[in-house]
Design a protein that fits this description.
The complex is a heterodimer of chains A (257) and B (260).
Chain A: E1 2-15, E2 18-31, E3 35-39, H1 46-53, E4 61-66, E5 69-70, H2 76-82, E6 86-89, H3 93-96, H4 103-114, H5 119-132, H6 149-162, E7 167-171, H7 179-196, E8 199-204, H8 207-213, E9 216-221, E10 224-230, H9 231-236, H10 241-249
Parallel strand pairs in A: 3-8, 3-9, 6-7, 7-8
Antiparallel strand pairs in A: 1-2, 1-4, 4-5, 9-10
Chain B: E1 3-13, E2 22-30, E3 34-38, H1 45-53, E4 61-68, E5 80-83, H2 87-90, H3 97-108, H4 113-126, H5 132-136, H6 145-156, E6 163-167, H7 175-192, E7 195-200, H8 203-207, E8 212-217, E9 220-226, H9 227-232, H10 237-244
Helix pairs in contact in B: 3-4, 3-6, 4-6, 6-7
The chains are: A alpha/beta (257), B alpha/beta (260).
């Protein structure tokens, strides 16, 4: 069942004096409960697409249908209400959160804004969210600065699922983590998807990570989607130059004599 | 094989920290080798790189010794080049590329500014920056992240050091740029027969570049040996786990019901 349909999305902006085409005729679809991996080098337009979907930035043209809404034309109260349905997890969580926030306040904000829960029920919900992402309830009073990188990324995931979204955009959400921590976060994301039927738009320049979690992979280059298909096909038989160079760039364990 | 330096009971503790960031009983570095220092965050890998380069903060307590076989420890900038993780903060935003790349040569190779600028131009060309003449007059912000890291490498090589320390130089960059930078480093180190200390969290990246691997965890040395030996016959559980958790394109998908 189609959750998201992006049609001919366009975005241009000016960097210094140089006009940049950030998105050029970008179209894609995403089903409920599906993960679409979005690969591409820096500057290929991945984050611009994410920002437009989150309604953090206007598009210059094109259309987005999300849960049967004309998503880009929503505004005011209606948009605020519907924002709960798409959430985002950023790469650098430390700069995404208010530096003075505690783990508890990070999770309380979306519940206060998007749910009708009373304070006491919100506390119960926060404890349940922490438990769901594998964190101790005692962390709730800790400053967001005062927890490890892996724990912080779990808090970011708990915050993202707090509003029961149908789509989470993960923008390089595991790139800054140590490999062992990264593996546990990837497993958590897959579990949550199974449990709640959440769709992911999983942005990464690392095809090995996308291979682990994606049903399909789309490859972006210079603002365009140059290739899109089942994850295994894109990695084993890349057709575009951009996909081929991403495949070639993944470091291999080299055992030399 | 000539010994370059020997670290003995090296213990580094940062200001107001109870436990040591690095606690090494012994580690030798051979002149001309490519040594990769591998570890996760908090393993002490950057502390090791900085201790070698004499770049620890003054407030850090450093016990034990680094015994260099040369009479004097290598002078940073002259005998030892250092490339940092984030070129946006390691390059000076208000100096031109030319000034920054020429400075090491001007300072340490007894060149005049105009000679040093010609030298800088060649260096900038050798790290693959297009149009090196105009690059010299440009500022760091005018370049992409990958190009900035190339320029940081050029600046580190300016005084023709015999040792190059590269501390997580690709972790802020995408994988395609990472592959290009590692290929560049490989070539430059080979040409100048430098000793390379390559600090990374990525064991696969290290395996393509280094002769020898040092694995650190929580400030301590877990394992050290020739690259092929460590990868084929890891001695410690930690190294085995590190190799196992490395994802490749052929690793199993985590999605339920997927065959591959």
């Amino acid at each position: 069942m189609t959750l998201l349909t992006v049609s001919s999305l366009a975005k241009r902006y000016v960097s210094g004096t140089r006009p940049v085409t950030a998105l050029d005729d970008v179209s894609l679809t995403l089903d409920r409960g599906e993960t679409l991996g979005l690969a591409g080098v820096s500057g290929s337009g991945k984050s611009t697409l994410a920002r437009i979907l989150l309604r953090l930035m206007p598009a210059d043209g094109g259309m987005v249908r999300f849960e049967d809404d004309d998503w880009l034309s929503l505004s005011g109260t209606e948009l605020r209400r519907r924002r709960a349905r798409i959430q985002m997890v950023f790469q650098d969580v430390l700069s995404a959160f208010n530096p003075r926030a505690t783990v508890g306040s990070v999770l309380d904000d979306p519940l206060r804004i998007h749910s009708r829960l009373k304070e006491r029920d919100r506390r119960t919900e926060i404890a349940a969210l922490l438990d769901r992402v594998g964190l101790q309830a005692a962390l709730v009073t800790r400053s967001i600065h005062d927890v490890s990188g892996g724990q912080r990324q779990r808090v970011a995931i708990a915050r993202a699922i707090a509003t029961r979204p149908s789509l989470i955009v993960l923008d390089e959400a595991v790139s800054a983590l140590d490999v062992s921590v990264r593996e546990t976060i990837l497993r958590l994301l897959v579990e949550l998807q199974q449990e709640r039927g959440i769709a992911y738009l999983f942005i990464s320049h690392d095809l090995a990570v996308l291979r682990a979690v994606s049903h399909r992979i789309a490859v972006m280059d210079a603002g365009r989607i140059v290739e899109c298909g089942p994850a295994g096909d894109v990695i084993e038989r890349p057709r575009s130059d951009a996909a081929r160079s991403l495949v070639a760039a993944v470091p291999r364990l080299v055992i030399r004599g | 094989m000539t010994l370059l330096c020997r670290m003995l009971n090296l213990r580094v503790t940062y200001h107001r920290q109870a436990s040591a960031a690095l606690d090494l009983s012994a580690l030798d570095i051979t002149a001309g080798e490519r040594l990769a220092v591998i570890g996760e965050s908090g393993s002490g890998k950057t502390t090791l790189a900085r201790a070698l380069a004499g770049l620890l903060p003054e407030t850090a307590r450093c016990e034990g010794e680094i015994r260099w076989t040369s009479e004097m420890p290598p002078q940073p900038g002259r005998d030892l080049g250092f490339v940092f993780q984030d070129p946006s903060s390691s390059l000076n935003p208000v100096l031109t590329v030319g000034e920054q790349v020429a400075e090491g040569a001007r300072q340490h190779l007894n060149l005049s500014w105009s000679q040093a600028f010609r030298h800088a131009r060649d260096l900038v060309a050798s790290v693959g920056i297009p149009d090196p003449d105009s690059a010299l007059n440009a500022y760091p912000h005018q370049f992409s992240g990958g190009q900035r890291q190339r320029l940081a490498i050029a600046a580190a090589l300016s005084a023709r050091p015999s040792i190059l320390v590269a501390d997580e130089i690709t972790s802020a960059l995408d994988m395609v740029v990472q592959a290009q930078l590692v290929a560049l480093l490989d070539e430059l180190v080979r040409q100048a027969a430098m000793t390379l200390i390559f600090v990374t969290h990525d064991i696969a990246l290290a395996s393509g570049l280094a002769d020898r691997l040092v694995i650190l965890k929580d400030g301590r040395l877990v394992e050290c040996g020739a690259t092929a030996q460590v990868l084929e016959r890891p001695q410690s559980d930690y190294t085995r786990a590190l190799i196992a958790s490395h994802r490749t394109l052929s690793s199993r998908s985590l999605l339920p019901g997927s065959a591959a």
